[in-house]
Design brief:
The chain is of the alpha+beta class. Helices cover 40% and strands 20% of the residues. The strands form 6 sheets. It has a 6-stranded mixed beta sheet, with helices on both faces. β1, α2 and β2 form a beta-alpha-beta unit. α1 crosses α2, α5 crosses α8 and α9 packs across α10. The protein starts with 9 loop residues before the first helix and ends in a 15-residue tail after the last strand.
Length: 470
């Protein structure tokens, strides 16, 4: 009996990708040239997407470039780079080959390579001239099925079951797009055959010590044998989970409006809610700050909140971050905070860049304010140094110790040791974010500048902006 399975139509693929892009392109800033960049590995999937996109440039009005991330993990890596350069040149697509260092850590070589690749994507996008820019990758429905199954077997929540989103936004507004996410590998193979495409095969894709490969070669095929629509079903699960996850995020936003002020989260403000909503709000607040604890760490944090009081000194490390408590509020900070060497402040260089260069986690940032540092004193030049045990400021006629001033200003203990202390002419003039010495303060009617504190380290929580602790 002849097979009744419908053969994939390669001709329709370009039309579906064109329709997908026409839906997404209006999301980009208008009035700017549209710059799309393809993450090009040289494998079948990315070569198909390169071929399709090259044909859509003129009708859809975008420019196309390619980025090949050279991981250096295979003997043939140089040959692959040369291959993608030739294929791009044949289609008049500018190609950048970026070499990265893959340092395997606790999560394994797969995760390390992915981290290096995503960093390369974000860095390359930031280098493009137009704000209307997006990075495209060639993940297809089979990749989505593997992702969902992987998260399911790890016991991840709805966000994990949602798999890979068709679109996401990088910091700075650039996008990552997956226009082939609903396409099957059979469709991509049919396109490649009809167009006579060449591609490279990474031998590591067949090595079963990698989790993804075990799922692809040892787990999914038997499932598909017994349940032919497995990939489609898992992709449908991803869409349902993504929708449910978005609804939970909407609910969390309503609850967090009550619980968050400044950078702090006050869990006690939500204790009138059912526990499931409190946990949902906490999980989303952590996610907003780049913290995604596993179930055990999250439960540890949740249990700790029951005994949170004014004196609690909670510190829970999650990857590169710490969740800390101060006065019954939670804060997310980098795991390691540093004071650095003394350095002079120059008006012609950003304060956060100077602080980073000197090894500081925090930098002074300025706003015009009465009783700030008088402009006439600032013009003498400032030096930033670390605190000393004997630091005392004259504030409103009284000599006040560093620790007491910090307590009154609501500065958490973990920040006190890394606060920038400002000197003018070798004399203590101010503690950033805390107080200005009377001798250097602006008089009534005189222009004054308040030294706040902002982050000098990379990351969402400590990006350069005022950090306020009411």
């Amino acid at each position: 009996m002849a097979s009744t399975r419908k053969k994939p139509s390669p001709e329709a693929l370009a039309g579906r990708v064109a329709a997908w892009l026409q839906h997404r392109l209006p999301e980009l800033p208008q009035g700017h040239p549209i710059q799309l960049c393809l993450g090009l590995s040289g494998g079948l999937d990315s070569m198909v997407l390169l071929d399709v996109l090259a044909g859509l440039r003129e009708p859809l009005g975008f420019s196309l470039s390619a980025l090949h991330v050279h991981h250096g993990l295979q003997a043939a890596a140089d040959d692959w780079a040369a291959f993608v350069e030739r294929e791009c040149a044949a289609r008049a697509v500018p190609c950048t080959v970026q070499r990265v260092q893959v340092a395997a850590a606790g999560n394994g070589i797969e995760a390390a390579a992915r981290t290096a690749r995503h960093a390369a994507f974000a860095g390359h996008l930031a280098s493009l001239d137009s704000p209307a820019r997006a990075m495209l990758v060639a993940h297809h429905r089979g990749d989505q099925a593997e992702t969902v199954l992987h998260h399911l077997l790890r016991g991840n929540g709805l966000a994990g079951l949602a798999g890979m989103p068709p679109a996401r936004q990088f910091a700075g507004g650039a996008r990552l797009w997956r226009p082939l996410l609903d396409e099957t590998r059979d469709t991509l193979q049919a396109w490649a055959a009809s167009r006579g495409l060449a591609w490279v095969d990474d031998p590591s894709n067949a090595e079963l010590q990698y989790t993804r490969n075990r799922l692809r070669h040892a787990v999914l095929p038997p499932l598909v044998t017994h349940f032919p629509h497995t990939e489609a079903a898992l992709a449908r699960v991803a869409r349902h989970a993504a929708e449910a996850s978005e609804l939970l995020a909407d609910l969390a936003a309503l609850d967090l409006h009550r619980a968050v002020s400044g950078d702090g989260y006050a869990p006690a403000t939500l204790r009138f809610l059912p526990e499931r909503r409190q946990r949902n709000a906490l999980r989303h607040w952590l996610g907003q700050h780049g913290v995604q604890p596993d179930a055990a760490v999250f439960d540890n944090l949740w249990v700790s909140l029951a005994s949170l009081n004014e004196e609690s000194a909670l510190t829970i490390k999650v990857g590169e971050y710490c969740v800390r408590a101060y006065r019954q509020r939670l804060f997310v900070t980098p795991a390691h905070l540093h004071s650095g060497k003394p350095y002079p402040l120059h008006g012609d260089q950003p304060a956060d860049a100077l602080a980073r260069a000197a090894g500081w986690s925090l930098a002074p940032c300025w706003r015009q304010q009465e009783r700030g540092l008088a402009l006439r004193h600032l013009q003498q030049g400032l030096t930033v140094r670390a605190r000393r045990d004997d630091d005392v400021l004259l504030v409103r006629g009284l000599h006040r110790q560093f620790k007491k001033l910090c307590q009154e200003a609501g500065i958490p203990p973990w920040l006190r040791a890394v606060l920038p202390v400002l000197e003018i002419g070798g004399e203590l003039a101010a503690i950033a974010g805390v107080a200005v010495d009377d001798r250097f303060a602006a008089a009534a009617g005189e222009e004054g500048w308040w030294p706040g504190i902002c982050g000098a380290v990379d990351g969402d929580q400590f990006s350069p902006r005022n950090i306020e602790f009411p």
